[in-house]
Design goal:
Structural class: alpha/beta
Low-confidence stretches: none
CATH superfamily of the largest domain: Type I PLP-dependent aspartate aminotransferase-like (Major domain)
Distance between the termini: 42 Å
CATH architecture of the largest domain: 3-Layer(aba) Sandwich
Largest sheet: 6 strands, mixed
Shape: globular
Strand order of the largest sheet: 1-6-5-4-3-2
Oligomer: single chain
Order of helices and strands: HHHHEHEHHEHEEEHHHEEHEHH
CATH class of the largest domain: Alpha Beta
Helix content: 40-55%
Length: about 375
């Protein structure tokens, strides 16, 4: 019996991928998809000339995160205060990828009695699916802080707040007033999870929030510069949870792969921060300036200030289409322009805005990220 996917965001993305140009999960290729997650040839060529790896192939032995003895080095690299590291209360557990970190962290929360995950802003859609698999509630609230004040008690250990920073798929940082509210909630005892898989070096919130028994962080530094194959993830948390997370990683995933070990060394000891990140920022900065100037040509399209990274949302003044209308619109868009995109309501931006919003990956080649965006906005201006 065939089992169909029941995750709405995956179903929507699969439908878009079925449109010519939507993308191919298996080959990693896209043909005109402004939102596709893989970078283009131009960026890959640049980074191949910059990345320096010290290969140490281990073909036979299992290699686990806890045997590497690098958790303090990892914490320092993420910016955990030295006082926390010296206290022995902080721990950084390396995992294979951020999706695995999400699974391990949600089961940790479930084991300590958390029954409700309340997202503060847009979130990676797998969080909801995994939480519900563990029997957790996942309520959506347009004003999550008001929801906390009216429905929940922050002292209720059955509630955890899930915060994605930068805000998922957009490069949007948390507003200062949001961080202030989170500090107040933390001090009142709230359980906080910061999913910072796309956080660039220096932007990590473990520099601002304590690593303690009710605050958790997820990182995947190579993902932040679109090195999506050579990467690792890490959960930064209190040492109370070390043994449980290590055990569950062994149960669910097993040992780390060579690419994870290599990525760890590259991040801690290699030229990740000294050369790769600066090359990435230079590429994105030049591309963004051209991109921002282009969007300004269309009065109905807007970019939010203060964003960083390679994913940027274009918010339009066009009313949000219904799901059925989306497919008709995207099919017509690709037919007329050869371009397509993933609508950002698939990332839960509809709670923030009822307008058409779509994501552009600035690391795709210029003929797509710039000229494709131009053709798409011209089509929207004419047809919507």
């Amino acid at each position: 019996m065939k089992i169909e996917s029941d995750i709405a965001e995956e179903v929507l993305i699969d439908k878009i991928n079925d449109i010519p140009g939507g993308g191919d999960h298996h080959s990693g290729e896209c043909d005109g998809n402004l939102s596709f997650w893989n970078p283009g040839r131009e960026y890959k060529t640049l980074m191949k000339s910059v990345v320096k790896l010290e290969r140490e192939e281990e073909l036979f032995d299992y290699r686990y995160a806890f045997t590497l003895q690098r958790w303090n080095d990892l914490q320092r690299a993420f910016g955990v205060p030295e006082e926390t590291i010296r206290s022995g209360r902080g721990y950084a557990n390396a995992t294979t990828c951020s999706s695995v970190s999400i699974v391990l962290l949600l089961q940790t929360l479930e084991r300590i009695g958390v029954k409700t995950i309340l997202p503060v802003g847009p979130y990676y859609y797998s969080v909801r699916g995994i939480a519900e698999e563990f029997g957790m509630e996942f309520p959506l609230a347009a004003q999550p802080f008001e929801e906390i004040n009216t429905r929940f008690s922050v002292f209720d250990s059955q509630l955890a707040l899930w915060i994605t920073s930068p805000i998922y798929g957009s490069g949007e940082p948390l507003a200062e007033e949001t961080k202030q509210e989170l500090r107040r909630l933390h001090d009142a005892g709230a359980v906080l999870v910061f999913d910072e898989s796309l956080a660039l070096p220096g932007k990590e919130l473990c520099r601002e929030f304590p690593v303690d028994d009710h605050t958790f962080f997820i990182y995947s530094p190579h993902k932040s510069i679109a090195m999506n194959s050579l990467k690792f993830s890490a959960i930064v948390c209190d040492t109370d949870y070390t043994d449980f997370i290590d055990n569950r990683q062994d149960v669910y995933v097993g040992a780390l792969a060579n690419s994870n070990i290599e990525a760890l060394r590259h991040y801690i000891d290699g030229n990740f921060k000294t050369e790769c990140v600066p090359a990435y920022l230079d590429f994105v900065g030049k591309r963004y300036r051209e991109f921002a100037a282009l969007v300004k040509e269309f009065p109905f399209a807007h970019l939010a200030a203060g964003h960083s990274g390679h994913y940027h949302n274009i918010t339009t003044d066009i009313p949000l289409p219904g799901r059925g209308e989306y497919m008709k619109m995207l099919t017509a868009l690709y037919r007329d322009t050869g371009c397509i995109f993933y609508p950002s309501d698939a990332m839960d931006f509809v709670r923030k805005n009822s307008k058409l919003i779509f994501r552009v990956n600035l690391l795709t080649d210029r003929d797509l990220s710039i000229e494709g965006t131009r053709k798409t906005l011209q089509w929207i201006e004419k047809h919507l």
